[in-house]
Amino acid sequence: MSDYGLTRDRVETYFDRTATQTWERLTSHEKVSRIRETVRKGRDRMRALMLSRLPEDLRGARVLDAGCGTGAMAAELAQRGAQVVGVDISPQLIDIARRRLHPALADSVDFRAGDMSDPSLGRFDFVMAMDSLIYYRDADIGRVVGNLATRTAQSIVFTVAPRTPFLMAFWTLGKVFPRSDRSPTMVPHDAARLARHCPGTLARVGRITSGFYISECLEHRS
User: Fold this and answer.
1) Among the four 29, 57, 112, 135, which has the fewest Cβ within 10 Å?
2) What is the Cβ-side half-sphere exposure of residue 160, based on CA atoms within 13 angstroms?
3) What share of the chain is helix, strand, coil (3-state, %, to 5)?
4) Is 51 helix (H, G, I), strand (E, B) or coil?
5) Predicted pLDDT of residue 114
6) In the chain, which residue ranges form alpha helices assigned H by DSSP?
7) pTM for the full model?
8) What is the pLDDT of residues 39-98, one digit of tens each?
9) Strand partners, 157
10) Shortest CA distance to 212 belongs to which of 42, 50, 47?
11) 3-221, superfamily in CATH?
């Protein structure tokens, strides 16, 4: 199995079996610890930053929410008028997303469990991938983005873990002291180096730092 496939399977195991309840609570309005609250706020800010790259009026557009998790991004895209396919490797998270979706948006969102790069998902005007590629190496990200680019008319907006001293130290320690019960390890990336693996144009959009949440938004155009 490829590095991509092995990582994808670890991500599925983590989100579908180990941490489903944690992520369900983190992405809800329930009270969480101060550390997790900073992560929640960071994710909210990142979602808003990513959405700012798309038109306010998305009527007539088909959008892929790649790694949709519990469905917050998909719901906001549908509220703008888009027809949304929300896909996630975790069937458990897809079940939560379906339960949370407002009935008024049911005809605008199609939630599916599976691989975000599956060609059977079809063609799109835009692709959004928030924190769903942060566990993969640059070559694997390049292949996924390249795959999606052949089926995306306008842009792919996605996030990576930036190559900061803090995240590099965290990543290095994770390799030295592996633990079978931890989440998959984020792989820090330098945007300029990552661009060499992505056909087309890759531009920095912005970085969000909120406590333990650090993520960088990039935009790809063919």
Assistant:
1) 29
2) 27
3) 45, 25, 30
4) helix
5) 96
6) 3-13, 20-26, 34-51, 72-79, 91-100, 138-149, 165-176, 191-195
7) 0.91
8) 999 999 999 999 999 999 999 999 999 999 999 999 999 999 999 999 999 999 999 999
9) 128, 219
10) 42
11) Vaccinia Virus protein VP39 (3.40.50.150)
Nearest to 57 by CA among 85, 87, 31, 82: 82
Query: Which of 39-76 are b and which e, b meaning 16 or more Cβ less than 10 Å from the residue's Cβ?
Result: bbebbebbbebbbebbeeebeebbbbbbbbbbbbbbbb
* Contact predicate 45/210, CB 8 Å: yes
Here the tokens at position 97 are 């997303």
Rounded to 10 deg, the angle between the 72-79 and 34-51 helix axes is 30
- Tokens, residue 214: 């650090």
Question: Which token pair is 82?
Answer: 């888009």
Q: pLDDT tier at 176 (50, 70, 90 boundaries)?
A: very low
Report the chain's terminal Cα–Cα distance, integer Å: 29
List CB contacts of 10: < 8 A, sequence separation 6 or more: 135, 184
Which of these ranges, 150-154, 180-184, 214-218, has the smallest mean pLDDT? 180-184
Q: Residues 128, 99: contact at Cβ < 8 Å?
A: no
Length of the chain: 222
Helix (H) or strand (E) holding 133: none
